[in-house]
Amino acid sequence: MSIRKLIVISSTLLLCAACAKVEEPAKTQPSPTPAAVAAATPAASYEQDLEQWKAKRLANLKSEDGWLTLIGLFWLKEGENRFGSDPTGEIVLPDGKAPAKAGTLRLASGKVTLEANPDAKITTKGQPVTAALELKSDDDDDGPTVLEMGSLSFHVVKRGDRLGLRVKDRESPARAEFKGTEYYPADRKWVVNARFEPYQPPKQVPILNVLGMETEETSPGELAFEVDGHPYKLEALKEKGEEQFFIIFADQTSGKETYGAGRYMYADPPGADGRVTLDFNKAYSPPCAFTKYATCPLPPAQNRLPLRVEAGERFLGHH
Length: 319
Hints:
- The protein has 319 residues and is an alpha+beta fold.
- It is 15% helix and 33% strand.
- The protein has two domains: 34-63 and 179-303, no CATH class; 67-169, Sandwich (Tumour Suppressor Smad4).
- The chain has helices spanning 3-20, 34-39, 43-62, 173-176, and strands spanning 70-75, 79-84, 91-92, 103-108, 111-116, 123-124, 127-128, 133-135, 147-149, 152-159, 162-169, 191-208, 214-227, 230-236, 245-249, 263-267, 275-279.
- The strands form five sheets. It has a five-stranded mixed beta sheet, with no helix packed on it. It has a four-stranded antiparallel beta sheet with strand order 1-11-10-9, with no helix packed on it. A four-stranded antiparallel beta sheet has the order 14-13-12-17.
């Protein structure tokens, strides 16, 4: 018998066997495991991507506008808020960094107006401020009005119904003395394939920050995943203007090996299959780990995981 005839007979037998089983219920294909997801990316390529992410993270921290430059946060009162190095003003800046009377920030009806002292040489976008200027806050769609004065920069922040002045110094000792960050060894186990469970419609979630302020943040849904065969969920948040999901979580390393107030992580939104990759190797410490002048949001109760996440950034006691 020829090889061609053998192939035809074999194909016919296989087709008949398939027909005999046509009435059996179709088996649901299991979702890819985290190991399978991780294995889909070559090890060398993943390690390279992770190292590039760490380098970018470090560069952002050490930049002239990074969290290590933050030296003050001053909440504004209604009416006049005098600022400068004069200790009798409402906002006291470091001596030698600002004139005694640099100007006034006037808060009225939720708006902040700058009246600058010409001697202070305050600029915005490289142009001198010579007249009263209404300042946008970081809550504005176009971002805040950033002011500069020597090595200092400052802008208005909005937290709930409060407005404050955030001050940075590119010559801050914290930036000059920074020792770097430390991470757990990269582990592909912590590249987790999660199932997105959307809220219909998205819901508002109360989020507390380190200053005790509470805001309502938008959550598009939950992310369900497994680690070592145990199920867990994390609630995702959607920041204004951001496509990625923002995740704030704590775990059983928090306050011991990682920052006590939890860690942050971003993840791309789900694809057509409704799956989301959570890479805990890219979990990082919030700004509050580096400065006491940040207003970090804290993880909601449902995002406090009852396991040790031995992945991502550790905490060295930066401040």
